[in-house]
């Protein structure tokens, strides 16, 4: 219950001597990080997580090989502007495979993977029954929820980095590297190109913060991990479809996916910040709204599974 | 690692000190709080569907007792345990565990409580040892420096050392049950709440668990044991409470509860019809006859005279005994129903 966390616990003042003969050790301030580490390790040790990361790593490989085969005769990979952003430039510079791969995975593969991990976060523990043992340990509801959310955010970053790294390796193996052309037409060195690629990866990871919060909220609503995962992934798809319907243009700026592809603006010279800032602001709003909702739900919920 | 008995005593003292100090948020501190480890008053849970799972429960579990919590399936035992552990918010009433209100003082109380609730729950993809390490990490008071040692000790105590490295999904039901028990024993506890701890165990495993419970009780740990196995409760418990349809129908010392139901006089004879007639003459009530067994409520007079009368009437007596009332008899007397009927 929420009261469990807010109630004043008669603990010794920090720095003061603990009560003589006290068998119950005062929690170390670093205890939460131990719980977080256990959570991170447990998440990464699941086969499901590894499979998701494997799929994400395979996307740049497929795109890279497809582009290589298509352009073997010296043809144009872009087919007159079709396909994900930047795809026509890959043959000139392997670094563009990073941008292409992120543009290809951001609309579906990345949010799906995050939806699975976030949806499973609480509901999965509830359906396996392990949640009740974590709570009577007692991990504390607020602390457990924060740990879970931090873990999902770490997974967002990990998933994005897996795509980036895989694309970078495949790009370097299959295509030449070197100076590159920005969208604005100016040339930048390879070193600065790498920095921008890393920045883009970070922005893409941050774009998933909203989905992560939404998934965590859904996860507190049900006792079935599968139901929570399916609902979250379903919401991701639904919102993207709604974002394509012109009649809903008044609502679209509030869809978490609306500004996702603004990460390409980091490849302008100078960088065009407006949509990037709107995207990050929107993600923060989602995190605040659905994070609070998840907290309100989880701290008052009866754990009967 | 401290010896369990010394640590237990310390825990007791710390608890006493806590009670003396006016802790914030306390509303009452009656002297009876001192000796009860669990104290529920009017504890009620009505689920959203309107179903009344627990109805005005008044439960007192004395310190250092082995307390049996009995009731048919669906009688509200598990809901009660979940309310005591802060997993479910009561609709009405209060619950105090180790003298502190639940669920408000969960952070202070639960580290001193080991629990096995509705069977074990494990991460199948982790080894038994890693499962325990994870649960121990979730306890804010657990010292990470002694974690591996305490996990090894807990595994040893439930006899799982050999299988500690195996993935938990490969465990049999009995092994999972043992691992669940090990999780409850990771730290010295003042209270153990064990919900059906011998489920899925073979007779040898059941005996081991009973021995373990007696050992823990001898160390001063209060054990709250829910079970539907009456003879198990009779063998290990000092106190018991009986629930039926969400209400508490009895609680007290096991001996007192069993004494509530009277024993039965049983005569084994090849002449049951004649024996039944003589017994009725001798003032034996409720005489029933089943094959060569004739039974009835023993009369107030000396049973030796009853036997003499049987012999005098030419009844050939093979056996003449008074069967002690069991807890099961008490249970049936209290609830008026068979034990495995869902309430």
From TrEMBL, chain A:
<keyword id="KW-1133">Transmembrane helix</keyword>
<feature type="transmembrane region" description="Helical">
    <location>
        <begin position="50"/>
        <end position="69"/>
    </location>
</feature>
<dbReference type="Pfam" id="PF12730">
    <property type="entry name" value="ABC2_membrane_4"/>
</dbReference>
<keyword id="KW-0472">Membrane</keyword>
<feature type="transmembrane region" description="Helical">
    <location>
        <begin position="197"/>
        <end position="218"/>
    </location>
</feature>
<feature type="transmembrane region" description="Helical">
    <location>
        <begin position="152"/>
        <end position="177"/>
    </location>
</feature>
<keyword id="KW-0812">Transmembrane</keyword>
<feature type="transmembrane region" description="Helical">
    <location>
        <begin position="90"/>
        <end position="110"/>
    </location>
</feature>
<feature type="transmembrane region" description="Helical">
    <location>
        <begin position="224"/>
        <end position="242"/>
    </location>
</feature>
<protein>
    <submittedName>
        <fullName>ABC transporter permease</fullName>
    </submittedName>
</protein>
<feature type="region of interest" description="Disordered">
    <location>
        <begin position="1"/>
        <end position="21"/>
    </location>
</feature>
UniProtKB/TrEMBL annotation, chain B:
<feature type="domain" description="ABC transporter">
    <location>
        <begin position="38"/>
        <end position="270"/>
    </location>
</feature>
<comment type="similarity">
    <text>Belongs to the ABC transporter superfamily.</text>
</comment>
<keyword id="KW-0813">Transport</keyword>
<dbReference type="GO" id="GO:0005524">
    <property type="term" value="F:ATP binding"/>
</dbReference>
<dbReference type="InterPro" id="IPR027417">
    <property type="entry name" value="P-loop_NTPase"/>
</dbReference>
<dbReference type="InterPro" id="IPR003439">
    <property type="entry name" value="ABC_transporter-like_ATP-bd"/>
</dbReference>
<dbReference type="GO" id="GO:0016887">
    <property type="term" value="F:ATP hydrolysis activity"/>
</dbReference>
<keyword id="KW-0547">Nucleotide-binding</keyword>
<dbReference type="InterPro" id="IPR017871">
    <property type="entry name" value="ABC_transporter-like_CS"/>
</dbReference>
<dbReference type="InterPro" id="IPR003593">
    <property type="entry name" value="AAA+_ATPase"/>
</dbReference>
<feature type="compositionally biased region" description="Basic and acidic residues">
    <location>
        <begin position="7"/>
        <end position="21"/>
    </location>
</feature>
<protein>
    <submittedName>
        <fullName>ABC transporter ATP-binding protein</fullName>
    </submittedName>
</protein>
<dbReference type="Pfam" id="PF00005">
    <property type="entry name" value="ABC_tran"/>
</dbReference>
<feature type="region of interest" description="Disordered">
    <location>
        <begin position="1"/>
        <end position="35"/>
    </location>
</feature>
<keyword id="KW-0067">ATP-binding</keyword>
């Amino acid at each position: 219950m929420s009261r469990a966390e807010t109630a004043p616990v008669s603990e010794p003042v920090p720095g003061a001597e603990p009560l003589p003969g006290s068998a119950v050790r005062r929690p170390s301030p670093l205890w939460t990080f131990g719980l977080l580490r256990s959570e991170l390790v447990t998440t990464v040790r699941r086969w499901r997580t590894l499979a998701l990361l494997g799929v994400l790593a395979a996307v740049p490989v497929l795109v890279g090989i497809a582009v290589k085969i298509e352009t073997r005769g010296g043809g144009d990979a872009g087919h007159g502007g079709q396909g994900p952003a930047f795809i026509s430039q890959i043959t000139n510079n392997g670094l563009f495979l990073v941008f292409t791969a992120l543009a290809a995975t951001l609309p579906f593969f990345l949010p799906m993977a995050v939806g699975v991990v976030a949806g499973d976060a609480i509901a999965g523990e509830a359906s396996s029954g392990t949640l009740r043992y974590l709570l009577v340990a007692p991990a504390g509801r607020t602390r457990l929820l924060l740990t879970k959310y931090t873990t999902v955010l770490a997974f967002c970053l990990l998933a994005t980095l897996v795509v980036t790294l895989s694309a970078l390796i495949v790009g370097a193996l299959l295509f030449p590297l070197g100076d590159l052309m920005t969208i604005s037409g100016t040339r930048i060195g390879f070193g600065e190109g790498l920095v921008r690629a890393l920045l883009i990866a970070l922005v893409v990871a941050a774009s998933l913060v909203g989905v992560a919060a939404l998934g965590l909220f859904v996860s507190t609503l049900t006792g079935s991990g599968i139901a929570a995962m399916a609902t979250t992934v379903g919401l991701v798809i639904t919102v993207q479809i709604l974002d394509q319907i012109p009649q809903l243009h008044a609502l679209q700026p509030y869809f978490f996916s609306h500004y996702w592809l603004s990460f390409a603006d980091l490849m302008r010279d100078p960088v065009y910040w407006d949509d990037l800032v709107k995207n990050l602001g929107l993600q923060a709003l989602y995190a605040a709204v659905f994070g609070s909702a998840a907290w309100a739900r989880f701290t008052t919920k009866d754990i009967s599974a | 690692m401290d010896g369990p008995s010394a640590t237990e005593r310390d825990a007791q003292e710390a608890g006493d000190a806590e009670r003396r100090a006016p802790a914030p948020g306390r509303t009452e501190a009656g002297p009876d709080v001192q000796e009860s480890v669990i104290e529920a008053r009017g504890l009620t849970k009505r689920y959203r569907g309107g179903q009344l799972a627990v109805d005005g429960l008044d439960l007192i579990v004395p310190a250092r007792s082995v307390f049996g919590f009995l009731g048919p399936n669906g009688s509200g035992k598990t809901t009660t345990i979940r309310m005591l552990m802060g997993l479910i918010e009561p609709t009405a009433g209060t619950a105090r565990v180790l003298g502190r209100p639940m669920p408000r003082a969960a952070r202070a109380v639960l580290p001193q409580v080991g629990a096995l609730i509705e069977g074990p729950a494990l991460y199948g993809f982790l080894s038994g040892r890693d499962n325990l390490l994870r649960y121990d990490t979730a306890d804010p008071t657990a010292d990470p420096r002694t974690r591996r040692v305490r996990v090894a000790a807990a595994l040893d105590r439930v006899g799982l050392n050999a299988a500690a490295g195996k993935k938990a999904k490969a465990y049999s039901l009995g092994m999972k049950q043992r691992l669940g028990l090990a999780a409850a024993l990771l730290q010295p506890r003042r209270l153990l709440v064990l919900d059906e701890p011998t489920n899925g165990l073979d007779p040898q495993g059941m005996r081991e668990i009973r021995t373990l419970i007696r050992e823990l009780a001898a160390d001063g740990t209060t054990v709250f044991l829910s079970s539907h196995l009456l003879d198990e409760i009779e063998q290990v418990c000092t106190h018991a409470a009986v629930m039926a349809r969400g209400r508490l129908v009895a609680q007290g010392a096991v001996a007192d509860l069993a004494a509530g139901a009277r024993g039965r006089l049983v005569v084994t004879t090849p002449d049951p019809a004649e024996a039944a007639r003589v017994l009725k003459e001798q003032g034996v009530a409720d005489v029933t006859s089943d094959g060569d067994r004739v039974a009835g409520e023993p009369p107030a007079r000396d049973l030796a005279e009853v036997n003499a009368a049987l012999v005098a009437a030419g009844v050939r007596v093979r056996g003449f005994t008074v069967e002690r009332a069991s807890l099961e008899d008490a249970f049936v007397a209290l609830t008026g129903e068979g034990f495995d009927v869902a309430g």
